[in-house]
Amino acid sequence: MSDKPIILYVEDDELSRQVMQMLVVRGMGNPNLTIWSSSENFQERLSQLTQKPTVILLDIHVPPYNGFQMYEMLRKHPDSHFHSVPVIALTASVMNDEVAQLKSLGLDGVIAKPVSQKAFPQLLQRVINGEKVWHIR
Amino acid sequence: MSNRIGVTLLIFFVLLAVVPLTLVGILALNVAENQARLQLASQLQTVADIKSVELQRWFDDARTTLGQTFVDEIQRERMFNVLSQDRDWSRTLVQLNNYIRVALAAQFTYTELFVYNLKGDVLVGTEATRVGTNISSAPYFSPSLSADYVQPPEISADQAAVTIFITMPLKLEDGQIVGVLAGVPNLEGMRGVFARNPGLGDTGEAYLVTDKGNLLTPSRFEGHPLLQTVQSTGIQEALSGNTNSSGYQNYRGREVFGRYQPVSFLKGALMVEIEADEAFRTLRNGQILLLLATILSTLLAIGVGTGITLWITNPIRHLTEVTQRVRGGDYSQRANVQRKNELGELGISFNQMTAQLQSLITGLEERIAARTRDLAIAAEVSKDITTELNIENLLARVTELTAQRFDLYLCSVFRFDEETENLSRAATSDRKGKQVSFLESVKLPLDAEPSLIALAARTRQTVNQGNVKASATYMPVRDYPNTQSELTIPMILGNRLLGVFDLQSDAVDHFKPDDVKVLTTLAEQVAIAIRNAQLFTEAQVAQKSAERANQVKSQFLANVSHELRTPLNAILNFTQFVSSGMLGDVNDEQIDALNKAFTSGEHLLSLINDVLDISKIEAGALELFIEEGIQLSEEVEFVGDTATSLLKNKPVQWKVEIDPNLPPITGDRQRITQILLNLVSNACKFTSTGSVTLKAVWQAPNVLISVKDTGPGIPLEEQNLIFAPFQQAKLGLKHGGGTGLGLVISRRLAEAHGGRLWVESAAGLGATFFVELPVVGNPVPVTKEA
Which residues 28-67 on chain A approach chain B with CB closer than 8 angstroms? Predict the structure, then answer.
């Protein structure tokens, strides 16, 4: 196991995917990043992952499923690894009821878009350490 | 119940009876005792004097008797011759001895007689043993040579006998003393003087004591033989030469009162004594009598006192008891004092007073009960209607309850229409609480006549018509012809006439002044309820439209925010990727341009964030994401970066002073940082020279953070303005940028943490912003601000 986190990112917006890729792979020098552009067959694809992610970042609007549904699938996945892996919403929707809904659902945090290059590595580390992170500005 | 007056009176009586009696008695006894002592002393002195005189007489007699020894002149001459001429007198002496024996036998006073010359030679004597001896060594010898002398009693060595010598010098005609005649008297004679004790009762006695303390005369009492050595204070006093009377313990150990005096020729003492018990027996009897009298009079005083006390206090006590029962609320109590004196008058006055009180209170209670009942009904009706916000229901309810509870023939509410100036019947109820409808027109112009309702509305005065049949102003109603009296009350709120409260009774003069008061109060309550219902309806409409508008606004903001954030994510990050050289070399000019683009993007983001925050706050839906153990120093680092970049080209120093003892904070990490960032970036923007200082100190139970700048400061009149939404102080506008929401949001965030945010500043003196945060966060929901 590498000491760099294994990240799974689900995002339908292409620009956001590119930003994340540059930020993580080139900016943080971490090659353990898997990016999915849709949530199709989400559960099956999770089972097929060779490297089990240590943190999962979800956009809230990734058809066909939304973030809440994906979170449900993760936590009810046959592989119990996905029952405890930290799950963060990475979203541009930061109105109260949306964030509160995510929080009450049990997500480990919310990071608002736009992602701050300065803050992101630190936030990621805190999530992996088991902290809840609510970075909604 | 205490009976203090009784006890006081009784004590008074007893004192009055006993004290003077006791005082007089003691005084009298004292006087009597002194008198008795004086009398006794005088009595004893008399006895002593008599004894003394008798004793003296006995001695005088004895001396006379002695002097008559040589009554025969021939024998006398012979005796003188023998004594004065020194010759052989053998024969003469025989004759003289014979003679003297005859002389002794001729009297009873002496037991022995003898004569001695100046040398002490006993020449003649009755006792053969003494004749021929020389007595010059005897104590009486030398005094006897010059004058008559009595030798004080001399007790023999075996204490069996006592001897007294009485001597008499024998003188020639020319006075020359040639010898001495001596006699030993028989002391029985002397003792006879003391054998009787007249005036000395059963225990008194008079006796003589020798200088050695021997009884010279017999004791009256057995067991005290002659010559016994006796002792007492009195004897000592007398032997010391003192004469007096006093009480002391005598030789028998008895308390006596005695007279003592010395008897000089005997060198002894004369004692007259009587036992104190006997002497003062009368006095003791007096004391006992006095004691008995005192006890008797005390008992008498208690008896009489108790009687009088009860006679006085019983009515008082009775009055007190009755008073207490009256005070306890039983006004039917009456006092029973059958006396024809002041107490009787007091009882009568008391009863009159209580009777008045009773009638007063009974009347008052009845009135209060009636009034309370009416008020309770009015309150009940008021309470019932305040919860009803539908006006039609409200008025129906008011009329029903009022008619029913006050037992009225009819109760109606007329509403006034300000536009048409008409009164219209809104609700009418009969006494069963049923709504009734009317065939007649329900519209009533304000100037309608005759109409008590229109009159009340027009004059804005309550109209109370006690007998409508006799009134010209009353307009009968066909369906309800039994109305006898009517009360119409205008319902006015502020200056607005809302309507008329109309109450009708089928009894003449039904509405009394008290009823009018209660019903007027009720009418006021109805007016308020009508107004409340109107306002509520209006408010409901307004609130619904406002809520709808707010929902639209929130949705709009959410959409705009989302739509702006997604492209901003690309803009901000790509400019940074490029400027950091990640995507290939860039020159300084390009970096500068990219940074400007980045900063602008960030500014746009902060505007979006501020607008979102304020809308959350206004919606009362700001939520904090609380975590524990926030180290302020870590957050300050991040703020410091911003400060440093803002102050890059200005001569302003950035200082951080964090108390090393600062405990970790519980709160929303991002929001706390947001506050600090807002305050620091404001300070940096407004300060052109000097310093910006961020300071955090521990002031249990709070952390106090301050951001101090040396900028232009904020005038007092603008200090409130900077915390109002969408307001920017003049300077803020001048410096441009920002929504003017930062401080508003920061303050609300601080408050949401259970803390405070405020500013201290004056124009030209810089500004210091303070944030006080409880260490253990106590977040409260931020409510919508009016």
Answer: none
